[in-house]
Amino acid sequence: MTTPPQTAPRRATITDVAREAGTGKTSISRYLNGEMSVLSPELRARIEAAIARLDYQPNQMARGLKRGRNRLIGMLLADLTNPYTVEVLQGVEAACHALGLMPLICHAANEVEMERRYLQLLTTYRVEGVIVNALGVREETLRPVGGGGIPAVLVDRLVDGLSADMVGLDNRAAAELGTRHLLEQGFDDIWFVVQPFEQVSSRQLRELAFRDAMRAQNAARAHTLVLDLADTAAVERGLAELDRAIEAGGDDRAMGKAGNAGTPGTTARVALFAANAPVALRLALHLKARYGAGWQTRVALLSIDDPDWAELAGITTIRQPTYEIGYRAVEFLHERIEGVQSAVRDCLLPGELIVRASTSR
Amino acid sequence: MTTPPQTAPRRATITDVAREAGTGKTSISRYLNGEMSVLSPELRARIEAAIARLDYQPNQMARGLKRGRNRLIGMLLADLTNPYTVEVLQGVEAACHALGLMPLICHAANEVEMERRYLQLLTTYRVEGVIVNALGVREETLRPVGGGGIPAVLVDRLVDGLSADMVGLDNRAAAELGTRHLLEQGFDDIWFVVQPFEQVSSRQLRELAFRDAMRAQNAARAHTLVLDLADTAAVERGLAELDRAIEAGGDDRAMGKAGNAGTPGTTARVALFAANAPVALRLALHLKARYGAGWQTRVALLSIDDPDWAELAGITTIRQPTYEIGYRAVEFLHERIEGVQSAVRDCLLPGELIVRASTSR
DNA sequence: CTGTTAGCGCGTTCAA
DNA sequence: TTGAACGCGCTAACAG
Question: Considering only CA atoms, which of A187, A186, A178 is closest in space to residue A213?
């Protein structure tokens, strides 16, 4: 049974409905906006019938034009490839649904230029607010948005110089949690592996907290490795450096258990601390290639973010409350849209440690 | 340096620009639409200056209202959690970018009710077309869209009773490719594992092609296992069934190499054929839990879809040309929007076999 | 309770 | 080459 390719019959407008119901446009408008109390049941019934008959659906664009609010919000995403992003998005969608908002999702695919273009596009569509999770937007780009312009809420990362609400992981606490766990498990040579810091505050904060935690425990061997995943050659070099460290360290994790922490000159037990899931994946792939299927028992890997393959790879993770992050972001934005003028708010949510084979004896 | 929270200065309108440039709105409109030839260079310069001074940006909504086209297209997605979807999306975005379209992304999160709601919402925003990758939309829901209504293009799955362009994997060829590979590697007891078919034509097609391929090779032991990932208890039962088969089959894959294919009563070499990535993940998790880290050498797993963790898990996959699927879908849709009236088209793209440890000796 | 009127920001006649 | 007037689909006064 094929649908006939007949010419598209122009969609009914409010005027059509009014004519069909034998009344004026205003009454239709009132009906649409739920002002039922001011409509006689009789008229109301006629309107309902007319709407059904014409399969009428109000034009949001026209409404928006008139009212000055179109219920659209922009959602600028740096990288949908990162499971974190998708999970946050689910929270965003749920909240939008609950608040009658419609998110315009813009995926910049890690390209700063794209971010700029999308931000401008969103402006052009007169979104009522923006949720920003971007790689390289600077204050200038966001100025017409955040300051004096439309409301903005930052997710996961700050934009320097811009004061706006922000919601994300409590990076300091999370990095400390991870570091402490590794130290407790007896690892004393820890490599924090992170993508280039760029403008991404969360990366900076995590690394900083890691170093602080190491220092606080008098654990001398703390290293930071910056891995630009987009640069194959650089990645190779970085991984080679890790290999040297791993192979100089304890040959077997079980063996090194009583290792003398921090004492220089002795074999140390090496652990890798990935700043996020993309990094962790790259590391895991390498470790598997180099040390075989059982690599988890050879070198410890802990990651912030808890992608669905973490269980499969047996890596320890710190799971972010992604859904809630997205949900809260929309709530914040909604309040701002509604005119709340309170001081800028930061919402830092705690991460949850999930211990798996790679860091347990 | 904080941005002062001054009151939002109303965005400039075309009227403001006209006044600022000392001319009428019409000229501004002409300028915006690139009709430069009809503007004196002098006026044109004044307009440019005024636009810059006011930081004017035309209101897309108003334009859309007037022109009857707002450059918006809807993109209905069944499941962003599936890496396939994200990859397709990247193709969609690239094509939209190239064609001056803006995709409204709607994520139904596998809920049929959500799909209905979003479809209606899209209608309400007067999108010019829709790309549909849905779980349960029926012809009725899509009627105002596909038939006689706004143009639609289907991705990955058909909607029964609806004739619309569609683009996706050549499921038949892909399933044959996978089946042949497994048979060639000497597996003769193959389980096709798939989510409930529902309205999803691709699932049905893959399963059908699998059975056909098995029959064509006179390979007697072909099974189909339907796994409803949302139903934990049902999954457990299904997995138990698989375990029985696996453990009844050859104890070691290397051993069974010379196994007598299809002969009943002898030990057979068991392989699992996952219909897509979510299924493959569930299977891999179970196999790892039951057979340990080296499960890949114990039981073969092949999957349609090539998620980023496939390499990590060492499973053989059939990679879909996801980016191209998304890109082509938008191209098709764009043509329809532009009024192309040709017969309904199907674009079936080939998959690529990527052999990994789990199915090679 | 109901209809009339005047725009929202913009594009498109049509005259000037 | 330019601009004034009208209307897109809808809402918000303002009468009745």
Answer: A178
**Contact at 8 Å (CB) between A230 and A261?**
no
Buried b (16+ CB within 10 A) or exposed e, A286-322: bbbeebeeebbbbbbbbbbbbbbbbbbbbbbbbbbbb
Whether residue A93 lies within 8 A of chain B, CB to CB, comes out as yes
* Residue B29 in tokens: 């409109």
Amino acid at B237: R
Residue spans of alpha helices (H) in chain B: 14-21, 25-32, 41-54, 60-67, 83-99, 112-124, 139-146, 171-184, 201-216, 232-248, 277-291, 310-313, 322-337
Quote the CA–CA distance of B312 and A265 in Å, as a whole number. Answer: 34
Q: Work out the average pLDDT over A290-314.
A: 92
Residue type at position A75: M
One-letter identity of residue A301: L
Residues 238-297 of B with CB under 8 A from A: 281, 284-285, 288, 293-294, 296
Phi/psi at B93 (5° precision): -65, -45
Q: What gap in Å lies between CA A212 and CA A83, rounded to an integer?
A: 28
| B126 chain-A contacts, CB cut-off 8 A | 11, 59-61
B183-242 residue pLDDT tens: 999 998 999 999 999 889 999 999 999 999 999 988 768 999 999 999 999 999 999 999
pTM of the complete model: 0.90
| Structure tokens given for A326 | 């997205």
CA of A45 and C1' of C1: distance in angstroms?
A: 15
The pLDDT score that the predictor gives to residue B282 is: 97
Inter-chain CB proximity A61 and B65 less than 8 Å: yes
Cβ atoms of residues A345 and A332 within 8 Å: yes
The tokens for A192 are 């924090």
Structure tokens at A301: 């890997």
Q: Indicate if the pLDDT at residue A220 is higher than 90.
A: no
Out of B80, B293, B296, closest to residue A86 by CB: B80
A13, A86, A356: best mutation site toward chain B, by most B Cβ within 10 Å?
A: A86
pLDDT at A169: 98
pLDDT at A9: 63
d(CA A317, CA A33): 48
> Does the beta-carbon distance from B312 to A288 stay under 8 Å?
yes
